[in-house]
Amino acid sequence: MIDWIKNINKDYPEFWKNYLSKFENQPQRYVALSIDYSGANPQKDVVFAIAAVGIENDKINIGDFFEVVLLQYVYLHENGLSNESIIESKLPKLGEREAIQAFIEYIGNAVLVGYKINLTIDLINAALEKMNCGRLKNDAIDIEIMHKKFKDTSDKSYSLADICEDFKLPIIEEIVIPDLAYTVSLLFLKLKSRLGLK
After folding, report:
1. What strands, in cross-sheet order, belong to the sheet with 47-56?
2. Exposure letters 16-44 (e unless 16+ CB within 10 A, then b)
């Protein structure tokens, strides 16, 4: 409610208006995503990279993917960090505004799927706020919560490696964001099937 009041008569960027118009229809697609980020505080931390892959009709569509490194030179400079990993990355590189806009255009009204998805959404919302946009409207599914439901437990936390082990998937030793997004998509489909979700 407060979000709605704050955004009355707000002049949004055109890409955001287009994004909002997509929610007149039911989502037909899931998007499994993974991000690399500086920390868990959306007020001061930033997203360094985003990777995502589309899922439709219980199939991963490897032709429907999104990968980008966000050029966070100001953050790196202010915190005395090296930009070596950004320079060495083979992923496409964009400034934060351009990358977030491209991501919003990519996801449309899809249901977002991720591990610790609420943190991912909070960090993306913080970037959107800097762009005078609203908050993400997409529904979201967390694979750790799905896994807890599958295991019928609520008092234990599961790492991504734990969930991979339970489903006999290879554990990613070196963090590569596109590989993580693909792993999330595989785990989502396995959990969705085991839980009998439509």
Report:
1. 93-95, 59-71, 47-56, 30-37, 111-114, 140-142
2. beebeebeeeebeebbbbbbbbbeeebee
Residue 195 has pLDDT above 70, yes or no: yes
Q: For helices 96-107 and 117-130, what crossing angle results, to 10°?
A: 120
Contacts of 8 (CB under 8 A, 6+ apart): none
Paired with 78 in beta bridges are none
Tokens of 185: 């998509």
Contact 97, 63 (CB under 8 A): no
pLDDT band, very low/low/confident/very high, at 22 (cuts 50, 70, 90): very high
The residue ranges of DSSP E strands in the chain, in sequence order, are 30-37, 47-56, 59-71, 93-95, 111-114, 140-142
Answer yes or no: is pLDDT of 1 > 60: no
Among 72, 65, 121, smallest CA distance to 96 is for: 72
What does residue 188 show for φ and ψ, rounded to 5 degrees?
Answer: -60, -45
- What gap in Å lies between CA 111 and CA 123, rounded to an integer? 17
Q: pTM to 2 decimals?
A: 0.89
